[in-house]
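Researcher: For the record, we're logging two predictions in this thread. I'll number them. Prediction 1 follows.
Model: Prediction 1, sequence and structure:
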Amino acid sequence: MHLLPPPPLSISSPLASMASSLHTNATHFLSPKPVAPTPTRSTTRVSIRCGPRDNRGPLVKGRVLSIEAIQAVQTLKRAQRSNPAQFPALVSKTLSRLIKADLVAALRELLRQDQCHLALQVFSAVRSEYPPDLSVYAEMALALARNEMGEDMDRLICDLETESGVQWESDKGLIRLIRAVIGADRRESTVRIYEMLKRNGWGSIGFKADEYMVRVLSKGLRRLGEVGLADEVDLKFGSRLKGSLENSSV
């Protein structure tokens, strides 16, 4: 008896469909998936400045201000706004903890911010503990002039008149102080400074009258209506300076 061979599998048969499906799935799992390119995003940088709400700039920490000086400035400003009744006591308590360097740094920072009323409080504390040099007086006078506080400038010069220990002959802040007072048109204070100069030996060997200071003081006194004193400056110190220059050229 002859057996007939099995009929060939048709493509449409179930076994053929299963084989085709397995082949397709194997190809799907083995073939690598294409990596989608990452879209590039543009980054926008926004500059944010933290600091006071006015335009005077933030406090500067580092070489200029210590942490103690910064805290003192912030405490004084906050106390002036929120607790004026206790302000004098808070000023005394805050400033008594500072060394001289921090006191002067706090004073200069308040002047930089044009907080002149607070600066006057700090300046009073500086004067009570340490004799300030004329450069500090000059900075005070410049800030007071900038804020049109002429009467406070006059009181400042009166305080200078009672100050002891000022090195008039070697202090580089003297000419800045003279220019600040003359620039603010404070006639009486300018006369006071001239009288203080004479009492402290201005024009002597130890306290020479340089040409620039003579010229500034003479022109300032003349502009403020003190013509007689301006002539006196020219006569006493201008001629003396001229004579010393002629002798040095011989």
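Researcher: Logged. Prediction 2.
Model: Prediction 2, sequence and structure:
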Amino acid sequence: MALQEKLDRFKKQQQACQSTLVSIASTRKTAAPTAASASSNGRTQAPANKFSNDTERLQHINSIRKAPIGAQMKRVIGLLFETRQAFTPEQINEACYVDMRTNKDVFDNLKKNPKVHYDGERFSYKSKHDLKEKSQLLYLIRKFPEGIPVIDLKDSYPTVMGDLQALKAAGQIWLLSNFDSQEDIAYPNDPRVLIKVDDDLKQLFRGVELPNDMLDVEKDLQKNGMKPATNTAKRRSAAQIQGISTKSKTKKKKNEITKRTKLTNSHLPELFQNLS
């Protein structure tokens, strides 16, 4: 008895899948060649694909269409993001088996999604910044002298991350990490760009006392997750092996201006106020 119930359920599932495939086939515009034209060309027509035999494919399509609305929307947005092309609902149905004509909730929610653009006929992916190539990317970054988050750029077009690295390697931009959010920020490396620095930040910067020993400086950098550009320990070890002194050279005392100094800048009297 249990076996008979399973067989009945399987038959119902096959019928549902069969109707699903028929609806997909009706949306396709490609027509199969007629038997007459095939015989006139002397070619044997390939056997038709029997939908009832393609059980795994039918089950896959059926599972997609029975999935939650959010899962179907994610599938469509993924298609739009990867291809960067505009699709009609029928083309989306053919590409990823999400039937928006029969599922009005998916259709309406996609129209309102901030990552999707709908022009009344086709759906396409909508990035935060409308960029297509590297020169446009550089032009946009130069509009933000205080930096623009990379996360706002990474979905602009497929090769944007490679272009960011290329601009960095060419010295046209800086990519620096934000310690609070651990996200990269893109800054323009353009001497013509004027960057305004707050007075509070200036005082904070000038109030930081740096260690006298470079070893301590490098340790502090490593504690804050930064890689030092120098390796003092290695340099000193190599110097000891070669017998080179590692003591810092004493700086020569600058010559002070005295009464006996020959003055060549007599037109700047404020420089010699202390000479009394």
